[in-house]
Design brief:
147 residues; 5 helices; mainly alpha; 69% helix
Length: 147
């Protein structure tokens, strides 16, 4: 609901209903994943390291696709949203440093990607494809593929 719609409803004496929790949680998750993917893409552009691009493709593409319309995962996502936001800040800080032309420490990169993998693991496992066809799970290389 836009601010204008809210104002009109309130002025007309109608009390707007809040969006359901599952919708708010899913919107927040998609925002976080998109932000993380954008920062990972910036890291790839700034460093030339394709590992960041693989992570960006997984987080902003495959994972987003798998969680979209999976409202039954809202409780799991709600439990992990704060941690996902926190690792998003880590990735953002690293992208800011790289975009300013500062050298990134290999240990910081490894730690950030490791934390990213651990934080996303519950969501990853919940949406992991199964079945007779070959699964396309991320192979993110360099020993930095925590998933």
């Amino acid at each position: 609901m836009t601010l204008a719609e809210y104002a009109r409803a309130t002025l007309a004496g109608r009390r707007p209903k809040p969006r359901p929790l599952k919708d708010r949680v899913m919107t927040a998750l998609l925002y976080e994943l998109s932000s993380i993917a954008t920062n990972l893409s910036q890291l790839q552009d700034a460093t030339g390291d394709e590992t960041f691009g693989k992570w960006a493709s997984y987080v902003g593409g495959d994972l987003v696709e798998r969680v979209t319309d999976r409202h039954e995962l809202a409780p799991l996502i709600e439990d992990n949203l704060e941690a996902i936001n926190g690792v998003g800040h880590m990735v953002n800080a690293m992208a800011r440093r790289a975009n300013m032309g500062k050298e990134l420490d290999a240990r910081d990169i490894e730690e950030t990607l490791s934390v990213l993998g651990r934080v996303l693991e519950p969501v990853h496992k919940a949406v992991k494809r199964s079945g007779g066809t070959q699964d396309r799970e991320p192979n993110l290389g360099d020993g930095r593929d925590a998933l």
